[in-house]
Structures are given as C-alpha cells and as structure tokens.
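hey so i finally got around to running the thing on that chain from the lab meeting. sorry it took forever, my laptop kept dying and i had to restart like 3 times. anyway pasting the input first so we r on the same page abt which one it is
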Amino acid sequence: MSKAKLVYIMSLRNAAADKAGQHIDYKGGQRYMKSPLEYLVHALDTTPLGDAYTLEAVLFDDDEGSPRDRHALQDYGFGFDPARRWIFPGDLRAQGRRVNDIFHNVPSTYRQLPLDASAERAAGKKEFEQRLADRLHALGTDLVVLDGLLVILDQLARPESPFFRQIVNIHPGITRLESPFERRGAWATLDALHGARGERVVDWRTRETVPIEPVLKTGASFHYVDTGIDSGEVIFDVLGTDIDPSDTILELRWNNFNRSLFPALHQGLALMAETVGA
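ok and heres what got predicted. didnt touch it at all, straight out
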C-alpha cells in the first residue's frame, strides 16, 4: 500500500504562545515544550505511522506584513534563524528531510482588514483558502492535519470541496457536546483551568465567571473539520489529563499535550491509515 501524503497546517503565533521548542517553568523545575508537530515528526520516524504517511509540507498562515503577527512572533520570527528561538530543533528531520526545508508560508492577509469591512474580509478569506487549496493540490495531498490554525476554514471544509473529510484537527479539549468535560474553542485550556478552580466563564470578553462544581480533568480530540468551531465528527479522543487548580496555563498545556493530545493525534492517524488516500 502506498503511503498517504500528509500536509500539516498551523499558525506559528499559536506555537509561540505555547513556548514551543523552549524549556518552560514547571512546578519549580523546567520541562521541554514539545509541539504536536515535533511529536508527529518523531512518530513518523519511530512508529508504524511512518509506514502509512509521508509528511509532504508544513504550511503556516502567519502574515509578516501584520504588526500583530510580528509582535506575536517577535521572539521567533517567521522562519528558522539559528540566532533566534524556533518552535523545534533546527536540525529536526522528518523521514530524512529537514522539516525547515518543507516549511511554506500561505499568509492569511485578509486579517489585516478592518473587522467592519465584512465584504472585503469575506473575499479575502475566500482568496486565502483558494491559495491553500492550490498548494494542497500541487502537493498531491491525501490528508490535512490542522494544529492551532487560528483561522476557521469555510470553503475547504464544505461538502462540495475536494478536501471534504480530508481535513482533520487536533484540539486540546474534549469536543463532544454531551461530555461534562467539553471544551471547544480557542480558550479550551484556560476554560479547563477555570473549571478546575470551580468557575465557568460566561463572558470571555469580560472574563465574568459563575461558581460551579470543580471539573478536574481535561483531554484532547482528533476530529474532522467542518465549517463550525471544533464541531466536526470525532475520530478519536482521550480524556487523560488531571488538572491541579494551582497549574499555570503552560503547566496544564504541557500536561495535556503529553497525556491526551499526543495520544489522540497518534491514535487518530492510526485509525485513518487504512482508508485515507484509498
């Protein structure tokens, strides 16, 4: 069976917020913050996932022309520089190829437009997704994995798209609405931390909370991407992370990556290996 061609799409600014590729303060010591991408690269080299997939490219949507993106990436930059921090070791290789050599920028430039310029933003987002689609077609993509992409896909995730049900997301929370541990959206980790402290955020703009019974676990979900927010069909999820209410956001992030998100990513890809690209 031929290997499926996998393309990884991310936002560097999200990885930077996680301090990816750096050592973080952890309970009085330090621990290395491995990103999901770095985990996947090692898994492709050391586990049967490498018999099923090849990593064809890593695409990122950050816009060097955006002052906000430049600020978010001030410690990292928009590409590997040995004199600066980077989100993984500079010599990291995936199946023999330097990961930095398969890094490509497809900037979501429409985000610079004013929020009230709805027609222009919609047209700009459509154009961005078309550029993504063109790159995916050129790479012969069989499966797309999203990780911390801070853009909600629309055209690419619709049933009429040639990539429908070929795009999956790894999310740092349980996405099943029926679960008492459900944590959808961009604030999933912080939401879980509030829950462990006996709080539920009712307004993320003001951070207003109401008291609840503490919820001391969280997890991660590997799911298909639709046009909603973390609302696609779940392929595999793991509820494996205990929360200490005294955790910092990065301590909880480290725990959840290692105890739930990496296993969900791995097992989700293993489940899909028999059918993707067939």
